[in-house]
Design a protein that fits this description.
two-stranded antiparallel ribbon, globular, mainly alpha, 16 helices, 423 residues
């Protein structure tokens, strides 16, 4: 197989799942864009082709993590049935509504195509180039020349830290490539660090520009973990001094400090005494209460909310607002998983994350011997997911799922001692 085949194929799938970063007019349906669905079909076709070609390599797909992925897909099937039993929705509508969960099949495609470190490097470096290009387009769009085909691309109107938040398509990729370039920077020799170091600063600036508080906090904590794991305590102190200097300079020239505001406003909104009516945590608290009530009513497996087709719902007498709240998956991670899958989902999630953490710890040990940046990166991304899953639903959205599964495959391949083998 040609060396760039995996990179080209997986880049196409990721780009389609991210709606081609809204740089082209969308192929729209009532439930949104068809582009991720095209990506899913393409993924399935390539997976079938890869399975046929794999021959004797098929057993590599069978391990504990494979079973976890298959069990998740089994849970989705149960949710489709429950949506019919509890809400009177047709099975066909349930399949359509839950279709984006089938992106978990990407795990098996990644296992087959990303079978050595060079392919991971190619893919992540390609993602870095794409993120840089989209960031340039973001700046063009921000200054008033509309280049994105999305409602938020023009006059989003959301002010945070005294400035209008920037619309950055595929923002989860920014967090991923930031951690990737930071891991590369730490693993490189001093003479080769210039490009990665510059990219780290650019992508950190992009987080501040976007003003996504949980994402910023999570990548910074993941970065600190990388520094501690590699025992770069002097660099940690220097980074702290640099950030302090940047905060002081920003505070002088801006009415609200764009660096510290994400931290202070997050603390204020979570504090019960200071929740503001316009604060995003006010809405999240309402979602948490709704999720808790739903969990109490259907504690074991949920009520099929994952498979509710909101736009064309023709089930029982439930109100439109109730169906919308049941099916809503954004703004919360852990809570929405509990609401959607009940106790069984909680057990699955704990086991899934525990396996990731265990393999991430092993990856750190291997990194200390090999200085392979993929291992440090995968461990850091695991930390990022654990923290940001409070509000960012990495488990139930296709675009986030793809990135999460890339990390899982890195960890699995390393745990099997396959990642560092030459091909």
């Amino acid at each position: 197989m040609r060396p760039y085949y995996s990179t080209v194929v997986l880049t196409i799938i990721i780009a389609l799942t991210y709606n081609l970063f809204y740089l082209v007019p969308l192929i729209s349906s009532q439930g949104g864009s068809y582009l991720p669905d095209i990506g899913l079909v393409f993924l399935c076709v390539v997976l079938i082709f890869a399975l046929v070609r794999s021959g004797k390599r098929f057993p590599i797909l069978i391990d504990k993590m494979s079973m976890m992925v298959l069990f998740y897909l089994f849970l989705v099937g149960i949710e489709i049935v429950l949506a019919t039993l509890y809400h009177g929705q047709s099975l066909a509508d349930g399949v359509v509504a839950a279709r984006r969960q089938y992106f978990y099949l990407a795990f098996f495609l990644f296992m087959l195509l990303l079978d050595d470190r060079k392919k991971f490097h190619q893919l992540l470096n390609t993602m870095t180039i794409i993120v840089l290009f989209v960031f340039v387009m973001t700046i063009v769009n921000y200054i008033g020349v509309k280049v994105f085909y999305h409602p938020r691309a023009e006059n989003w109107g959301v002010i945070r830290s005294g400035v209008e938040r920037a619309f950055i398509p595929g923002f989860r990729l920014v967090s991923m490539v930031f951690l990737w370039q930071f891991a590369r920077w730490l693993a490189m020799k001093h003479s080769d660090r210039l490009i990665s170091g510059t990219l780290v600063i650019v992508f950190l600036g992009e987080h501040i520009f976007r003003q996504s508080r949980v994402a910023l906090i999570s990548v910074l904590i993941a970065s600190i973990v990388m520094l501690v794991a590699t025992r770069r305590y002097g660099l940690l102190i220097k980074s702290g001094i640099f950030m302090l200097f940047a905060i002081l300079v920003t505070g002088v020239f801006m009415e609200k400090n764009i660096i510290t505001e994400p931290f202070t406003t997050s603390f204020e909104e979570v504090s019960h005494s200071k929740i503001k009516a316009e604060g995003s945590w006010n809405d999240r608290l309402k979602q948490i209460m709704f999720a808790w009530n739903e969990f109490q009513e259907h504690p074991l497996l949920g009520s099929g909310s994952v498979a509710l087709r909101v736009g064309t719902f023709e089930g029982n007498g439930s109100s439109g607002s109730e169906i919308f709240m049941l099916a809503y998956k954004s703004d919360l991670g852990y809570t929405n998983i509990i609401k959607s899958y009940g106790v069984v989902g909680i057990i699955w999630l704990v086991m899934f994350l525990w396996m990731m953490v265990s393999m991430a710890r092993y990856a750190i040990r291997v990194f200390s011997k090999t200085s392979e940046p993929l291992l440090l990166f995968a461990a850091a991304y695991t930390v990022y997911v654990l923290i940001s899953l409070v509000t960012l639903n990495h488990i139930m959205f296709a675009e986030d799922t793809l990135l999460l599964l890339i990390i899982v495959v890195i960890l699995v391949q390393n745990y099997r001692n396959k990642l560092l083998e030459s091909h």
